[in-house]
Amino acid sequence: MTESHPGGAPAPPRLSEPNIPAIDAIIRNALAEDIGAGDVTTLSTIPAGARTSGRFLAKAAGVVAGLQVAERVFRQLDPQVGFERLAEDGELVEPGDVVAFVRGSGRAILSGERTALNLMQRMSGIATQTRRFVDAVAGTRAVILDTRKTAPGLRVLDKWAVRLGGGQNHRFGLYDMAMIKDNHIAAVGGLSQAVERVRAGGANVPIEVEVTNLEQLREALSLPIDRIMLDNMSTAEMGEAVQIAAGRVPLEASGNVSLQTVAAIAATGVDYISSGALTHSVMALDISLELEPITQEDS
Predict the structure, then answer these.
(1) Per the residue annotation, which of 55, 114, 141, 199 is the catalytic one?
(2) Is residue 149 among the annotated active site residues?
(3) What is the DSSP string of 225-255?
(4) Of 149, 199, 237, 240, which is the active-site residue?
(5) Which domain holds residue 116?
(6) Active site (annotated) includes residue 231
(7) Which of 34, 231, 240, 286 is catalytic?
(8) Are residues 114 and 55 in the same domain?
(9) Which pLDDT belongs to residue 297?
(10) 69 three-class SS
(11) Within a domain: residue 201?
(12) What are the start-end ranges of the H helices in 80-154?
């Protein structure tokens, strides 16, 4: 089924929710980076049979994200670790809310604590910022999109967090959508030639072209493309572009999009607004793991 947003333009492709194999690979790499040959402090001080429990506590208001990821962190270290979610990914939380409990092997929980918190705090920060953008454009046709400005190796989590915050995903990489920009156009001598080259290449992917003025927009509208990006245009130019396009091709606004400007951009009538600020300068949501004293396993 083709998904659409309220304005009627086709929505960008969405990733499966969640991509478990990719997430597990990220967790394996993160744990290997942190633990290496062994958690020397925990192995030296915590007996093998010791157990503990703890609660994940939100210390700031926001959108919690990554609870499923945190659970999988501990399960990779010990499949017997228990994890109880008291909130769901994508849910609004307030300071003092307990969002999850963890219980089981003291060694597994202590060794996985930082990795679980790092991933969950980052995802929650992205989801929270995305929700702010989505709320700012409420009542308009505009859909908030992310970009490829994600942390290397964490794109699956970053883009999942955007969706949990109410946004949608732009292309995942360089392979699932053709994005024709000024350098590509200059290399082949013109926009029409660039579109023709991509179509002739045989890749069955959507094509988006970047334009910086209304003359380029008019040329792009005559070509067999799927979306047009209005790059760094003023809101006045965007409004005129919407009138010129008249719904023939979906329009995406991009460039210098911030929480302070996004409402005005949405008011121009564009279909999509993409912002790297959702992921490239994340302020992690403050979440802590408060652990109970370590106890010996009953014999």
Answers:
(1) 114
(2) yes
(3) -SEEEEES--HHHHHHHHHHHTTSS-EEEES
(4) 149
(5) 20-128+284-291
(6) yes
(7) 231
(8) yes
(9) 66
(10) helix
(11) yes
(12) 106-136
Q: Is the peptide bond before 79 cis (omega within 30 degrees of 0)?
A: no
DSSP character for 190?
A: S
Report pLDDT digits (tens) over 41-67. Answer: 999 999 999 999 999 999 999 999 999
| Same domain assignment for residues 47 and 123 | yes
Residue 68 falls inside a structural domain: yes
Nearest partner of 59 among 96, 18, 34, judged by Cα: 96
Task: Mark whether 114 and 37 lie in a shared domain.
Answer: yes
Strand 143-145 versus strand 272-274 pairing type: parallel
Q: Kind of pairing, strands 287-291 and 51-58? A: antiparallel
181 annotated active-site: yes
The answer to whether 113 is a known catalytic residue is no
pTM across the whole model: 0.92
pLDDT at 129 over 50: yes
Q: Which two tokens stand for residue 48?
A: 């093998």
What's the total number of domains in the chain?
2
Q: How far apart are the C-alpha atoms of 292 and 139, rounded to whole Å?
A: 46
Virtual torsion, Cα 165, 158, 265, 228, nearest 10 deg: -130
